[in-house]
Amino acid sequence: MRILITGARGQLGRDLQEVLAGHEIRAFDHAGLDIGDREAVLEAVGHVAPQWVINAAAFNDVDGAETQSGTAFRVNARGAGHLAEASARVGAAILHVSTDYVFDGRKGAPYTETDVPNPLGVYGRSKYGGEQRVLASGANVCVVRTAWLYGRHGKNFVTAIRSAADKGAPLRVVADQTGSPTASADLARAIAGLIRTPVRGLFHVVNAGACTRYEFARAIVGDQVELIPISSAEAARPAPRPENAALISERWALTGLEALRPWQAALEQFLHALRSAGD
What is the DSSP-derived secondary structure letter of residue 214? Predict the structure, then answer.
């Protein structure tokens, strides 16, 4: 297949290119294609004429979005809509990657695809706007919500915690936010499988299980350094975070594909690979 990928230099975008290497890939980073520019998107997608568009581009600075709402909505909402419009014009299917932050975290249990979003901050609202535009576009659509992504490329919680732990000082880690840590390589493989199926619509795709940020950090560093649990209020971040936005799927079984493995197994393999590489 000919596949157009946006967000090509991000951690998911780079993993997608590796997983989909057997296909004809046209990958764009922000410098190559500003998805907030409708005319540029229509021209690029029209020129490439792909069978699939995979949108892994995003303005994902959760705190920065609070003061840069225009940019967040331009990329996450309107940009996603531009790609969906262009896909519909050329008869391509589109897979759009979204986030657990579309939920407010107040359900008290993991969220399924049938739960109604209620984002707390600008980032979540902009991503939900993107979902809505893609789903309403008339294109052949998959929307994949995921959470707490980490991988070999780019900045993420795992690499940040490891780097901080290497300095030896105690680490203060939020203990009242729960989510679903997900390896970007596992997500990329799931997406590669999904686009080979005829099933479309909305899916939650995360490594199985859930934990708090504190529990995740403990799994990352073990006993290397002291961890001090703190509250979200003590962390005092600019953007509100959902208290419990763990995800599960009621729809993934429809694809006939295997569910993603537990987050602990994915993390263990990831950390082993980093140690083996001497990182």
Answer: H
Closest by CA to 134, choosing from 41, 258, 229, is 41
pTM value is 0.96
- Contact 73/131 with Cβ under 8 angstroms? no
Tens digit of each residue's pLDDT (9 = 90 or more) over 249-274: 999 999 999 999 999 999 999 999 98
CA angle 26, 205, 120 (to 5 degrees): 100
At residue 178's C-alpha, the angle toward residues 266 and 110, to 5°, is 90
Token couple for 230: 């703190």
pLDDT in tens, 137-156: 999 999 999 999 999 998 89
Question: Can 101 be counted among the known catalytic residues?
Answer: no
Q: Determine the Cα–Cα distance for residues 82 and 42; give it in Å rounded to an integer.
A: 7
Which residue among the candidates 101, 111, 123, 214 is catalytic per the annotation?
Answer: 123
Q: What's the half-sphere exposure (Cβ side, CA atoms, 13 Å) at 168?
A: 0
CA-based R_g, the chain, Å:
18
User: Distance of CA 256 to CAs 20, 190, 259, 266, Å?
Assistant: 19, 11, 9, 21
Query: Which domains, ranges and CATH numbers included, belong to the chain?
Result: 2-155+181-209+245-261 (3.40.50.720)
Residue-wise pLDDT tens digits, 48-86: 999 999 999 999 999 999 999 999 999 999 999 999 999
| pLDDT for position 279 | 57
The Cα–Cα gap between 241 and 164 comes to 22
